[in-house]
Amino acid sequence: MDRLPPLNAIRAFEAAARHMSVTLAADELNVTPGAVSRQIKGLEDSLGLQLLKRGHRQISLTRQGGDYYRAVTRALEALRDATRKLKRRGQRKQLKIRAYTTFAMRWLIPRLSGFHAAHPDIEVLLKASLEPVDFRKEDIDGAIRLGDGNWPGANCYRLVSNILAPVASPALLKTGPRLKRPADLAYHTLLHSIARLDDWMFWLEAAGVDAKFDARAGMTYESSAMSYAAAIEGQGIAMAQLFLVEKDIREGRLVLPFKKTLDMGDFTYYLLTPNHKDETSSMKTFRLWMLEQFDRG
């Protein structure tokens, strides 16, 4: 492989070409003008090209020197940028957070850019999982979980009301079977999430639908995000947690066929942190940010 030119010579040439002055380049590099001249002459000799035209107390770039200066400038700036990024990365605090896929995709990820902008020194490493949380066995700082607020070994912070309601695409309601009352759902495909298989049963019971109604019928998806996507495409009716589909309802991709909603009370989303060790400053910052986001509505 061809040898690279000495970095000191490259820096001397770049500074001299940028200032169009050997003296100013020497001041910047904290060396003598003679040292700068020798570095540039050595670079020219190694390249077999003249880079600078020397005049009385002034210099100018040859055509080849101008081409080389532009290439050197790009290379040095790329090196500076890579160094800055590497140093910032070493200074950033990493925060490991677990969440459900749907919560991450529909609520957290769209807002994380705002968190990173406000706290550039904290890097959130987000992992999606349905598995139970064990802070003593896992290397994580926090987790968003759905439950009743009681998790052994964890501090629990309630995030949002978990309000259920069926949602469907406007096109399905216009072209599909009638849907005047909850019992008419029997003529439609119900869309389920593996993580929340009982939500339809809870809502149908609250809506007074006959207990003989098969609340498990229909299609089941690995995540609620998939069931919402299927509902938007008109493949059926999904049981939604309303705070996760607010944007779709606001923008008309989904509608509520019924006014009936069901508040699941304490069974909702919580931010969990380990209670066997002190909370880090970065975790506290993230926790307060999350709670503020939900308080804003």
Provide an overview of this structure:
This protein has 297 residues and is an alpha/beta fold. The protein has three domains: 7-90, Orthogonal Bundle (Arc Repressor Mutant, subunit A), CATH 1.10.10; 92-161 and 267-295, Periplasmic binding protein-like II (D-Maltodextrin-Binding Protein, domain 2); 163-263, D-Maltodextrin-Binding Protein, domain 2, CATH 3.40.190. It has helices at 7-19, 22-29, 33-47, 63-91, 101-118, 170-175, 199-206, 224-232, 246-250, 281-295; strands spanning 52-55, 58-61, 93-99, 122-128, 142-147, 154-160, 163-167, 190-193, 219-221, 237-241, 262-263, 268-274. The strands form three sheets. A five-stranded mixed β-sheet has the order 4-3-5-12-6. Strands 9-8-10-7-11 form a five-stranded mixed β-sheet, sandwiched between helices. A hairpin with a 2-residue loop joins β1 (52-55) and β2 (58-61). α1 crosses α2 and α1 crosses α3 (33-47). The radius of gyration is 31 Å and the shape is elongated. The two termini are 60 Å apart. The mean pLDDT is 91.
Feature tags:
five-stranded mixed β-sheet, Arc Repressor Mutant, subunit A, D-Maltodextrin-Binding Protein, domain 2
Q: Helix and strand layout, with pairings?
A:
Layout: H1 7-19, H2 22-29, H3 33-47, E1 52-55, E2 58-61, H4 63-91, E3 93-99, H5 101-118, E4 122-128, E5 142-147, E6 154-160, E7 163-167, H6 170-175, E8 190-193, H7 199-206, E9 219-221, H8 224-232, E10 237-241, H9 246-250, E11 262-263, E12 268-274, H10 281-295
Parallel strand pairs: 3-4, 3-5, 8-9, 8-10
Antiparallel strand pairs: 1-2, 5-12, 6-12, 7-10, 7-11
